[in-house]
Amino acid sequence: MSTYLRASATPLAQAHDALLLDLDGVVYRGAAAVEHAADSIAAAAAAGAQPVYVTNNAGRPPQVVADQLTDLGIPTDPAHVMTSSLAAATTLARDLPAGSTVLCVGGPGLRQAMEAQGYRVVTDAHEKPDAVAQGYGPEVGWAQLTEAAYAIGQGARYVATNLDATLPTERGMAVGNGSLVAAVVNATGVRPTSSGKPEAGIFHEAAALVGATRPVVVGDRLDTDLAGARAAGMPGLQVLTGVHQAYDLFAAQPHERPDMLALDLRGVLEPHPEVVPTGDHLGGWRCRDAVVRVSGTDLHVVRDDVAQALASLTEITLDELRAACCAAWEAADGGTGLALAPRPLAVVV
Predict the structure, then answer these.
(1) 208 & 249 share domain
(2) Is 284 inside any structural domain?
(3) Mean pLDDT of 273-302
(4) For 135, left (φ over 0), alpha (ψ -120 to 50), or beta?
(5) End of a domain among 249, 269, 289?
(6) Which end of the chain is more exposed for a tag (fewer CB within 10 A), N or C?
(7) How many domains, the chain?
(8) For residue range 222-247, what is the model confidence (pLDDT) as tens digits?
(9) 115 and 187 share one domain
(10) What SS3 state is found at 340?
(11) For every residue of 164-213, which 3-state class applies, written as one string?
């Protein structure tokens, strides 16, 4: 079996008792559900894998997230939603007792999570807060960031819901919470404890919502979803419906590499094939009939015994992508730098 990608002889929805699903780029894009998402989630739940939605968006309470999913044809209740605001409240609760004062910089989801944890929420540093919690909120601006800086300067502990520099929107990549956190860090010199993805805790808390002991993480971003799966010691499935695509996978660092690959959420309903070394004198990796070899600094896909440079292809199969990832990761781990400039590469069935 591959030391890079793992196989599953049974569909993931049967092998695992929960799907820890990222939202944007996996379940929906903007106001629309990703194709096949609703049917795949329903089928996985029927097979015994409970869906839990894990998001770094701290601005919205779980009920709002659940309502949106339900409106998209994915019936959900708030008990199956884990936000980075909830994770931040849990992080503070490890050593900050209920009744303490927390200055919230962010949306209503952050305030609600802190209040549910038993904290008194304030928005002014004059209140001498015990902690500052910062999360995404479209209304966050200079005044709120400055109050946070004042409070941190007075000695308040500092927690951030996540450190994502960007936030995907229908118009493109917007300023994310991590970029706003950077302004406070620059002003204070104090770095926050982060509670969202890719930290392990948010995934363990998500699994605990449904009592899962065999969860699988499903995401579209290597640096948050898949790195978080690795940190949590959980298998991770990368889908190609969001941020990171085929060429991004080739350059993935060991701490963010997925365990399995799929085009979309239908991948949770399918077995996953073995990817193994070819075992011949030419070297390379094989996934069923797909073979990929390294030649110099290039990846070559072998088709009908003819090797074609990956850089010259516009389409590859999913099995070819699986083999190519293992070949690229083996080369990188062995110190060989491949000449693979990111570009569009369609992955087909």
Answers:
(1) yes
(2) yes
(3) 94
(4) beta
(5) 269
(6) C
(7) 3
(8) 999 999 999 999 999 999 999 899 99
(9) yes
(10) coil
(11) CCEEEECCEEEECHHHHHHHHHHHHCCCCEECCCCCHHHHHHHHHHCCCC
Range of the domain at 133: 85-194
Cα 128 from Cα 157, distance rounded (Å): 11
CATH code assigned at 212 = 3.40.50.1000
**188 and 114 in one domain?**
yes
pTM for this predicted structure: 0.93
In a domain, 76, yes or no: no
Residue 217: count other Cβ atoms within 10 Å of its Cβ. 29
Distance of CA 270 to the CA centre of its chain: 21
Instruction: Tell whether 70 is covered by a domain.
Output: no
Alpha-carbon torsion (154, 155, 159, 160), positive or negative:
positive
Percent of the chain surpassing pLDDT 90: 88
Q: Is residue 123 part of a domain?
A: yes
Beta pairing partners, 332: none
Q: What are phi and psi of 60, to 5 degrees?
A: -105, 135
Q: What is the CA radius of gyration of the chain?
A: 22
Name residue 214's amino acid.
R
Please tell me the distance from the alpha carbon of residue 180 to that of residue 160, in angstroms, as a whole number.
Answer: 10
Task: Determine the Cα–Cα distance for residues 233 and 345; give it in Å rounded to an integer.
Answer: 30
Q: Is the pLDDT of residue 170 over 80?
A: no
pLDDT digits (tens, 9 = 90+) for 303-347: 998 999 998 999 999 999 999 999 999 999 999 989 887 788 999
The terminus-to-terminus CA distance of the chain in angstroms comes to 22
What pLDDT shows up at residue 219? 98
